[in-house]
Amino acid sequence: LGRTPNLEISANEARKLPETVGRRKQGPDALGALERVEKLGEEDLMLSRRINGESHPGTLSLMHSLACMHRALGKLQSAEKLAEESFVLHKKFIGEHHPDTLSSMQFLAWTYQALGKFESAEKLGEEALVLYKKFIGEDHPDTLSSMHNLAWTYQELGKWESAKNMREELTMVRKTVIGEHHPDTLSSMHSLAWTYQAIGKLEAAEKLGEEVVVLRRKVIGEHPDTLTSMHFLAWTYQALGKLEKAEKLEEEVVVLQKKIVGEYHPDTLTSMHNLASIYQALRKSERAEDLGEEVVMLQKKIIGEHHPNTLRSMHNLAITYHTLGKLTNAEKLGDEVVILRKKVIGEHHPDTLSSMHNLACTYQALERLESAKKLGEELVVLRKQVNGEHHPNTLSSMHNLSCIHRALGQLESAENLGEEVVML
Q1: What is the CATH number of domain 1-136?
Q2: By its UniProt entry, which InterPro entries does this protein fall under (predicted)?
Q3: Which pTM does this prediction carry?
């Protein structure tokens, strides 16, 4: 979906943040204000260490606050180092069951996640959740925030069943404790719908996604979170083959995103990309072409031609050109995508192999059979390495290569490949 996960800061942790952090989105000098507060925090911590000692509650509080400040400024390594020290000292001097220790523990897990250290985040997050449930209760807001963050960690680790179970529990508890109209409940419902989609439970994703869109429209109106849920629901409709519903909803999303977050916002570009793919699936190729060209132009300008999202849009636009019979355009763009994807994500990545497959088909349609053969042979070798020789994509590439050999009059090679496909 191209969306960044919304991690939650616990209530206890939020109380420790300097007041300026809560206002960081206000005014053009917000970053400068944060940096000034950070400098003051460093001076206060150094002074408190010297006068009160590292075991003093005031020192521990300042240490945690400064770690939060580093995190807010994107200084993740500094945040990690200070958060680890803070957690160790909290455990040593006030005990592992104290709410402030749990807050430090949860913040450190959150920082590990931001750094991509998901195994460390999982281990610490699970430990924190057990302690939260035991000492402050299963229904406490900090416990629920800990569950939310741990579910994201499971997702990043590909542990979708664990993520699903955690989100189902979290959604149920939040509906009971704070009600289904609360923004945090809606966030949990949205994440759960996303999880259902990821594990192939499309009908469940659709049902819950529709509920979230209705509630978010009612509670927060034309808010970016509402648009995210609408975009997700359109994506789910598309996965279910309900293309007209997907088209109608995604068109509405694009209009609203241009109005609310601007046409250059990454979320707007993602929705435009998806809408172009829906047009393509509906065989509205001219619309797909017009929108696809606009998206590629904007993405190259804003996020650069090497960004995976840009390459994905270029890949789809090349398909649209091929569908429209604009084979020269398809070839030119397809060549560019293959070169860039090999460079950016490597020749073994499934997306690279998909682009190579499409380009070979374009060469074949242009009757550039030697080029098609050369690329097709490279593709078969790579797909056998990546997917194995029995994978449907490998067999499809072998079949296409057999057809190319036949078109070149290389009948023995074509027959051998065809027999290999049948045997596999």
Answers
A1: 1.25.40.10
A2: NLR-like, TPR-like_helical_dom_sf, TPR_rpt
A3: 0.78
